[in-house]
Amino acid sequence: MKATLEAINQMQADGVIGKYAIGGAVGATFYLEPAATVDLDIFVTLPTASGGLLLSLAPIYEYLKSRGGKIEDEYIVIGDWPVQFLPPSNDLEQEAVAEAVSTTVESVPTWVMSAEHLVAIALRIGRSKDHNRILQFVEQDAVNREKLQSILERNGLTAKWKQFERKYLEGTHE
Amino acid sequence: MSKPKMRARLKSLSFSEKIKILEKLRDRSEKIAASGLRRKEIDLTPAHIQKNE
Lengths: 174, 53
Description:
The complex is a heterodimer.
Chain A: H1 2-13, E1 20-23, H2 24-29, E2 40-44, H3 58-65, E3 70-72, E4 75-78, E5 81-86, H4 91-98, E6 101-105, E7 108-112, H5 115-125, H6 128-139, H7 145-154, H8 158-169
Parallel strand pairs in A: 2-5
Antiparallel strand pairs in A: 1-2, 3-4, 4-5, 6-7
Chain B: H1 3-11, H2 15-35, H3 46-51
């Protein structure tokens, strides 16, 4: 992971990407016990080309390929991790990148989404593995409820959260 | 060590230590997949059963 993050940081220093944040299962591992995963999700802001409106991941792939990265399906393998680069597709993901928490992995600086943003994104996606992850955050008391409520309200997810609570949390004494 | 204690201990590890565990879990999973030890899905559709009778 160290080599992977060093390559991503270098890409940022070279201006290929803007701010980034680790999301998904690896991001959740920052707050929870480690859970098996095979890939690294990097939410990344892309510098817009002058006059261009379309955001493309091509410069990332070209940059990394020229430095030994291997493309495998939707991933590019950097170091020994398959990485998926995801430009934020909505306000919630944009906010999650902007408000990411700085940390280090083996002395390499990096950024991880806040626990509350990870929960809100998991709620929006809504697959069973996302619901499991939300339950882990709640059960392990790893989320600030006030901050979460505010994110959910800003992003129109309050009704979905109520539905989630009814389905999974009713009757539990949190 | 009890399961809740183990979970709390794992949660309290540094991010670097947790990443090392993730990498071990991933490598183990890849080895199992490569060895063919993972249970194959059993096709119980009538057509498949009939074909293999």
